[in-house]
Amino acid sequence: EDQVTQSPEALRLQEGESSSLNCSYTVSGLRGLFWYRQDPGKGPEFLFTLYSAGEEKEKERLKATLTKKESFLHITAPKPEDSATYLCAVQSGLHDYKLSFGAGTTVTVRA
Amino acid sequence: GAVVSQHPSRVICKSGTSVKIECRSLDFQATTMFWYRQFPKKSLMLMATSNEGSKATYEQGVEKDKFLINHASLTLSTLTVTSAHPEDSSFYICSVWREARSYEQYFGPGTRLTVT
């Protein structure tokens, strides 16, 4: 069974204070690892897909990296509008195209 | 712009009644859609995979007679919560699998269901 563990559960940052979120996973044949951002009362917003170890993707202040066991989401010089819950999900070869989600990391950025 | 829409965004119903939630793919045709539910401060739990033109595939523990899914067209899937009870109150979210972009799923804005 696919397992996804995110840490920390919550992260409080000062504006401009860079940090990283961790997503550890165990899957049988990784098809893809996904990062989503979710604001309260809204559906998840797609950020990145990573397919193989060593891959990196960037979008504004966010950068996602992938190894064979984990993924990191780096937030560089965050702003208050980066406050959200960040969800990590994996897709494995055994379960068609279903996503298995981690519990998320709630990031709060103070001005 | 939005790729997936859901209607309604919020619904309050009385115990014992049924509620239908619509999920529409706005930008492309989708043979596969997914339905999730999310409890407060918890992650998303997959309920079922909706397949256009065939029966939905339900996850273990999800009652198929209670959560009826119809994927009648390539842009519309519906979830009907039958004989709703307070424990069915939750945030229901659909997603669309974009086949042209390997494995990526795009989520709708969600529907908040409250059963009184």
What does this structure look like?
The complex is a heterodimer of chains A (111) and B (116). Chain A is mainly β and 111 residues long. Chain A has strands at residues 3-7, 10-14, 19-26, 30-38, 45-50, 56-59, 62-66, 70-75, 84-92, 100-101, 105-110. Chain A starts with a strand and ends with a strand. In chain B, 0% of the residues lie in helices and 54% in strands. Chain B has strands at 4-7, 10-13, 19-25, 32-38, 44-51, 57-58, 67-73, 76-81, 90-98, 104-107, 111-115. At the A-B interface, strand 4, strand 5 and strand 10 of A face strand 5, strand 9 and strand 10 of B.
Spans of chain A of 5+ residues with little confidence (pLDDT < 50)? none
**Structural class based on helices, strands and sheet pairing of chain B:** mainly beta
Mean pLDDT of chain B: 91
Distance between the termini of chain B: 34 Å
Oligomer: heterodimer
Order of helices and strands of chain B: EEEEEEEEEEE
Q: β content of chain B, as a range?
A: over 45%
- What Rg of chain B is obtained from the alpha carbons, in whole angstroms? 13 Å
Structural class of chain A: mainly beta
Number of strands of chain A: 11
Could you spell the SSE succession of chain A in H and E letters?
EEEEEEEEEEE
Whole-Å distance between the termini of chain A?
Answer: 41 Å
Shape of chain A: globular
Chains forming the largest contact: A-B, 23 and 23 residues
Low-confidence stretches of chain B: none
Instruction: Give the total of beta strands of chain B.
Output: 11
